[in-house]
Amino acid sequence: MTEPTVAVSASRGEASIGKEAKGSESSSSLLEILLVDQQELTAVESFSEQHDRDGRPSQAKYYSRLLPASPPGPGQQYAFEVDLDRCSGCKACVTACHSLNGLDERETWRDVGLLIGGTAANPLVQHVTTACHHCLSPACLTACPVDAYVKDPVTGIVKHLDDQCFGCQYCTLACPYDVPKYHSGKGIVRKCDMCSSRLSAGEAPACVQACPHEAISIRVVDTHQVVEDCEVGQFLPGAPDPHFTLPTTNYKTARAFPRNALPADFHQTSPQHPHVPLIVMLVLTQLSVGAFAAACVASAVFGRKVMTAVAGGHASVALVLGLVALSASLLHLGRPHLAFRAIIGLRHSWLSREILAFSLFAGLDALFAASIGLGPGTEGVGRGAVVWLEYSVVVSGLLAVLCSVMIYVATQRECWSFGSTAGRFYLTTAVLGLGTLWLTTSLSGGDGRTEMNRALCTALMTITAVKLLSEAAVFRWLWTPTMSSWKRSARLLVGPLAEVTMARFACGLLGGIFLPMIARHQIGASPEGHAQAMVVVTASIALLAGELLERYLCFAGAASPRMPGAVRP
């Protein structure tokens, strides 16, 4: 095998020498010789030239009918069309998408689920392939605080800008179809873009080419028709309501689904991702806001002289805990060094608004804590300015909590409705605010605060009871016959999350009712106050632990409708 190669090389060398000799004989320059050699194409260049001459990909004859004849016009966009009668559940589309996009082992941008139903005599088993639906009103785009999503104005494809993303994962909560996938190694979210680079070159996406039954195709849809179809409220059995984002994927079948057709995992309940940094951030920011609000109300009710000894320490505690909360939120970002981008989406993202509102609250909080020395003992303009600054801190904090509420309300999850979420967050603000004020006033000592401490214990017991009863109301859904999101959440709380649920109610009862009741009877009865201090500290720890557990359940138990999936063990 070596000799012929040498011979060929030798012959090429001789030919080259011959050319040089001939060139030298004709007085040709070296530059002219090189220019002549460049005109001789290599095998790769010849293949590329032939490919360009044909104008179409070599495999186009196999999938050309699965692509639209012309690009979208005004009022149109590209969309997936899935023929359910052709889908066999082979997952070739999943494999092709995985290979082309270089996804990790457990990362998928396209999934295959299962619908079941019918009767014993005529059962239904329907495989369903799903990916990004490139919605007309994508929730991921609206929710993103850094504008890492764009919807192409011509094709309608929703693309994710990896370089812009800072990994807040809010889009994974906002998308009802579980499309954006968080990549912990890269610290960003990624998703299907309909292989837009292929599509722009006239080549079909990987999933379209890979399907052996031609169940997936790309079509041009009229946006007004998509809106009309979504008005009917029919997308897929058991899937999220299409009114929210107006998905463009068209699932077609010649069969009529039976009335009991549901995803195979419809009755399964599994805890959701708890987002621990968010738990800490939400609870501590609400504690900080509540502490200022409670102190403001106490000053108005009992007089500012009663708060003189504790005002500075109380404000400092609230400020420090608020700053700890804001620092904890950075741990939730996949790329925290890009946190400065967080307010880019201020026009449309509640997360951007929350960050701005809490930044304002922290600034006013620090200013108030620094000027606390001008408080009750100062007369005139200085004292009035401090009072108004205190009111500004409270108002900005309550507005920031409202932004936190709207972040989760905007996801349209049933268990995160406005009433439910606002009740949770503001009651936490009240409970922890009262508990913090009770702690600081009890440990500071001094006279004149006996009545205030009694009132704090009474208010704390009342609000804690209201909060625990409102949380326990979810259990009534266990006895309803239909499987709603509320019933799934209730089943999670008494099933996989039962131990956390019991711990939460135990901490709430201990720190918010039993210990304040004991402390109320101890007020003024113990000269040294050691027993009372022990009760107050224990109650404060139990209250904080209970609210952290409550917020864990708020995330982990937030069940919602989803696209059909396989039964998981």
Tally of DSSP helical segments: 19
Helix percent band: 40-55%
Determine the strand fraction and express it as a percent band: 5-15%
**How many strands in all?**
10
Instruction: Give the C-alpha Rg.
Output: 33 Å
In terms of quaternary structure, the protein is: single chain
Query: What's the order of the H and E elements?
Result: HHHHEHEEHEEHEEHHEHEEHHHHHHHHH
Can you summarize the main beta sheet? 3 strands, mixed
Please give the order of strands in the largest beta sheet: 8-1-9
Shape descriptor reads globular
Secondary structural class: mainly alpha
First CA to last CA: what distance?
Answer: 57 Å
Stretches where pLDDT falls below 50 for ≥5 residues? 1-26, 374-381
Mean pLDDT comes to 85
Describe the structure.
This protein is mainly α and 569 residues long. The chain has 19 helices and 10 strands. The chain has helices at 2-25, 30-38, 43-54, 60-63, 92-100, 139-143, 170-174, 196-200, 206-210, 223-231, 276-302, 308-330, 350-370, 381-409, 418-444, 450-472, 485-494, 498-522, 530-556; strands at residues 76-83, 111-118, 123-130, 149-151, 158-160, 181-183, 188-190, 216-222, 250-252, 262-263. The strands form 4 sheets. It has a 3-stranded mixed beta sheet. It has a 3-stranded antiparallel beta sheet with strand order 3-2-10, with no helix packed on it. β4 and β5 (158-160) form a beta hairpin. The longest helix has 29 residues, at 381-409.
Q: Topology of this structure?
A:
Blueprint: H1 2-25, H2 30-38, H3 43-54, H4 60-63, E1 76-83, H5 92-100, E2 111-118, E3 123-130, H6 139-143, E4 149-151, E5 158-160, H7 170-174, E6 181-183, E7 188-190, H8 196-200, H9 206-210, E8 216-222, H10 223-231, E9 250-252, E10 262-263, H11 276-302, H12 308-330, H13 350-370, H14 381-409, H15 418-444, H16 450-472, H17 485-494, H18 498-522, H19 530-556
Parallel strand pairs: 1-9
Antiparallel strand pairs: 1-8, 2-3, 2-10, 4-5, 6-7
Helix pairs in contact: 11-12, 11-14, 11-15, 11-19, 12-13, 12-15, 13-14, 14-15, 15-16, 15-19, 16-18, 18-19
